[in-house]
Design a protein that fits this description.
With 140 residues, the chain is mainly alpha-helical. It has six helices and two strands. It has one domain. It has a two-stranded antiparallel sheet with strand order 1-2.
């Protein structure tokens, strides 16, 4: 039995990675360091229980344990607000991320919105995001 050329060659896949400029890489590293410091500060100051289901959290924090109550993509100014972070377990974080909110999650969101309105922090965000927030809360 004779082998063809293609049978002798290993299968190769070419993956093209987007190049990151040195300036962008430096910004990403700086952002990651700031996030880590921010999350550790929160972890050290709170009880290690899920804010939604009240189950205990692991001894070591994981990234999914820190959930932005109001999404950081829509509310960039609230990214580093401690009141905008809820400690969550893996299951509750996945549920919230999927958009299927439990009554406890809805309560946390409404409390955070009231807090930011009283502090005047939602006015800083802008009218477009305020409308997006109203739509997001209606869906919740």
């Amino acid at each position: 039995m004779q082998k063809t050329k293609t049978q002798n060659k290993p299968l190769r896949r070419t993956i093209f990675l987007k190049r990151i400029s040195p300036a962008r890489k430096k910004k990403i590293v700086k952002q990651t360091k700031r996030d880590k410091e921010f999350y550790i500060e929160i972890w050290d100051s709170r009880l290690h229980i899920c804010g939604c289901c009240l189950n205990p959290l692991p001894d070591e924090p994981r990234l999914f344990n820190f959930d932005h109550i109001l999404p950081k993509a829509s509310f960039k100014k609230l990214r580093y607000e401690k009141d905008n972070i809820a400690l969550t377990c893996w299951e509750c974080h996945q549920i919230k991320t999927s958009g299927k909110l439990t009554p406890a999650m809805k309560s946390i969101i409404h409390q955070a919105v009231e807090c930011f309105v009283k502090q005047g922090k939602l006015r800083v965000i802008g009218e477009a995001n305020t409308e997006r927030l109203k739509d997001w809360i209606k869906e919740a």
